[in-house]
Specification:
The protein has about 240 residues and is α+β, with helices and mostly antiparallel strands. It folds into 3 domains: about 55 residues, RNA-binding S4 domain (Structural Genomics Hypothetical 15.5 Kd Protein In mrcA-pckA Intergenic Region, Chain A, Roll); about 80 residues, Alpha-Beta Plaits (2-Layer Sandwich), CATH 3.30.70; about 80 residues, 2-Layer Sandwich (Alpha-Beta Plaits), CATH 3.30.70.1560. It contains 7 helices and 15 strands. Strands 7, 8, 9, 10, 11, 12, 13, 14 and 15 form a 9-stranded mixed β-sheet that branches. About 25% of the residues are buried.
């Protein structure tokens, strides 16, 4: 249960003082009855309307975004635009935050959730939740590079876990491949290819666990995950929904 004024503030309808004034103006109904008491406690199964329009009173949200290039994956930044600028106020007001990071010039599947504990668990290498990236790189990929990924690559500050490299197309000037990781260090995919003598020209995350990037989402668009999609992700990381 939650106070009505606190709930409406979390839903982005205004500050606590603003929503109190809104409530007292008799524009909110609870289960069909006008409510003018900001302190009334609201249950999850209550029905709320504002000016006759139904309100989604859920404070737990889980999203999939097709992240575009050029945006930082961060809650805020004083100098550069972040992925949060694409979200509607209702998600920002309830602290729906990115799950991990995609580099500024990396596209693709980015999760958001209000469940910080689940986010931490999904990102932990111990949970063994796979992330699949599509990478276009300079030069010709071969079986030696595949083997190096399988064995794990020693970088300057850590040893990567074994990863799967599946070559889709290999040419002298450029190659296309899918990379499956079970961790996500800063610039990891780029650094792994760099250690093998290849520059990443384009990178897109295609899958997070069993969740695949929705082909209907254009860059910058997002949608809510279904209960089944979120529950499946949690089960993969041994968290009960």
């Amino acid at each position: 249960m939650m106070r009505l004024d606190r709930l409406l503030a979390k839903l982005g309808l205004g500050t606590r003082s603003e929503v109190k004034a809104l409530i007292r103006s008799a524009r909110i109904t609870v289960n069909g009855l006008v409510c003018t008491d900001p302190g009334q406690h609201i249950r999850e199964d209550d029905t709320l309307r504002f000016n006759g329009q139904p309100l989604d009173i859920r404070t737990q949200h889980h999203l999939m975004m097709n992240k575009p290039k050029g945006l930082l994956t961060a809650a805020r930044d004083s100098r550069q635009e972040t992925v949060m600028s694409l979200l509607s106020p209702i998600y920002i007001s309830c602290d729906c935050m990115p799950v991990g990071r995609l580099d500024k010039d990396t596209e693709g599947l980015l999760l958001f959730t209000t469940d910080g504990k689940a986010a931490h668990h999904l990102l932990s290498p111990k949970s063994m939740v796979k992330k699949i990236y599509e990478a276009k790189v300079s030069g010709k990929l071969d079986s030696d590079t595949v083997k190096r990924f399988e064995e794990g690559i020693s970088l300057s500050d850590f040893q990567t876990l074994p990863a799967k490299l599946s070559i889709q197309e290999s040419r002298e000037d450029a190659s296309l491949a899918l990379v499956t990781l079970y961790e996500g260090k800063h610039h990891q995919v780029k650094r792994m290819f760099g250690a093998c003598g290849h520059e990443v020209l384009h990178l897109r995350r295609m899958q997070f666990g069993s969740l695949k990037l929705d082909a209907l989402l254009s860059p910058g668009q997002y949608r809510e995950l279904s209960d089944i999609e979120w529950s499946s992700l949690l089960k993969e990381s041994s968290i009960e929904a």
